[in-house]
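It would be a great kindness if you could assist me with a short task in structural biology. I am sending you one protein, given as its amino acid sequence and as whole-number tokens for its backbone shapes. I would ask you to consider whether the tokens describe a fold that such a sequence might reasonably adopt. The full record is reproduced below for your convenience.
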Amino acid sequence: MFNMFKRKFGIILCLFFSILPYSIVFSQDNIGIKYFGLSIHPKGEKLNARLMPNKLDKNAYLVINLGGEFIYEKFIYEDFLSVKFVQALYADCAERLGGFSHIGIRLKIFEIERHSLFGGIGPTFVFRRNWLELDGYVNPNVFVGDINDKWQHLFLWYGGEFEYKYSISNKIDLAISFVPGYPHLMSLAAGISLKLENQCNVSIQENQE
């Protein structure tokens, strides 16, 4: 599984770092940390709901997950266009170790006073400890892996995200992200985003003074 992950994400990372030198000097980078979160199963998980101890209803339409996301965002044009990297680790719906890696292009949809909304899309690699090890698990064949594998995985070229931000200062935003993975899984995560000073921009300002 991880050999495939290295091949696919190795190519994507090379593309990501190749564009960094061409970012506009007055752009601003962000780092963020989010709590993960809430999983939403639009059609429920009736067959496997009994395996999900943190479900909020009997059919597991809503399941609480414990974990976190680390985010780095590189703006390539002002605060409008960016490339975003997300690495997440969490206890999944069956309280087994899982996570995902995501790289995507993001655009600002709107900004009104302190409120802003961003939308993005890009490849996402999802992994989890093998659920085939669980007694009574009914396999819907969404994740790849057999009974002898330690991990299951899922690769999406089109993984997307909507993120709402509320600015509480010039440096800090509160952020809520929504991943619309219909029909299998949607998720919510909340946290903070910190704005980093762009070193090129700082040096230009100092020279002007």
